[in-house]
Each structure stands twice: as structure tokens, then as C-alpha cells.
Amino acid sequence: MPATVGILSFQGDFAKHQQVLEKLRCQVRLIKSVEALNRVDCLIIPGGESSVIARFLKIEKMAQPIKEFAQHKPIWGTCAGMILLGRSIIDDNKAQPLGLIDIITARNAYGRQYESFVGTGEFGACGEKEEMEMVFIRAPKVIKIGKDVEILGRWQDEITIVRQDKVVATAFHPELSASTRFQEFFLSLLH
Ligand code: GLN
Fold first, then answer.
1. Catalytic residue among 133, 175, 184, 191
2. Given this model, what pLDDT does residue 127 score?
3. SS (H, E, C) 149-176
4. Which residue, of 31, 40, 127, 133, is most buried by count of CB atoms within 10 Å of its CB?
């Protein structure tokens, strides 16, 4: 049976994630409630504006249910999603992160919207390293990581992909690149 992937869809880049996953033959559900969350096999928190998404999570009382979801099901956060999965945000109290990956992030640390760029980074999930296109849009930097966090990718010296158990986060936007390599890796966490 194909996996049912939930994408948090209060705000941000959820439609592009949906397109790519449907191409990979996943069932996609757009998630805006705890009831909908409980019907999917894994969850994506898209890029967008972390403070706005955090506000919706609070209104819909979804923070605790997402923390419970993460105990046994994979979650992937891109960009704003990475910020929200982390432990804390440096110099910023606009969003209360979920604390599902022991990282401290700095918002907008690569510059402003017009300084968005595409770089070639490195991804290495199973020992071997491969090149990966990385699209950065007002992306966060990972400033500090805890001992349980695995670094799965970098662009130059910056940490751009992290994992803690079944929770992964990318500072960039894999859904905007042609390669579906990262999506395939994420879906492999279902098994
Ligand atoms: N700068 C945004 C934030 O801080 C993230 C940008 C993005 O998700 N592309 O939430």
C-alpha cells in the first residue's frame, strides 16, 4: 500500500511538496487538525514563515499531538519546518519550537529573500556521500547541535541536514529541485 503522507498546510510551500510526493505515488493529505494528523503515516512541515505556522499550531492545539506523533512516525521539516522542529531559536521569541531535534537555529541567517541561492551540497545518509542541489530561501543556519543529532548534509561548512531518530530537517527546499533523492530517503524512514 502506498504511504499516506501528511503535509502541514496552514501556510507556506505545502503545494509544491504535494506535487512531488504525488509524482512519487504517495497518498497526500493536507493537515490542519489533530484528527487529520492521526490518519497519516508521516508528516512534513513545509517552508514558509515559522512564526505564522507556530501561531496556527497553537490555535489548533497541535504541538503536543505532533510530539506524540514523532515518537513512532517520521517527520520532516524544511526551512521554517526545521526551525519549528528544533529546540530553540537564537535571538528570537516569535515562535515556540517543538523541540523534536536538539538543534539551535538562527533564522534568516543566509540573508534576505533577494539573497536566495542554489548551491551544491553534500548528502550522506548511509556512509556514502553524494552531491545534492540545495535551494536556500531566507534559510536558517544550524548554530548548535546536541549529542543525539546526526549530521546528514552540509553546504560548504554549514550543517544543512540533520536527523534525530525518525525526525529529519533540511535548511533548504528539496521540493524545489528536480531530484527526488531526499524525498525517497524520507519515505525510507517509514520502514
Ligand atoms: N525565514 C523563514 C522563517 O524564519 C523561513 C523561510 C523558508 O521557510 N523558506 O520562518
1. 175
2. 75
3. CEEEEEECCEEEEEEECCEEEECCCHHH
4. 31
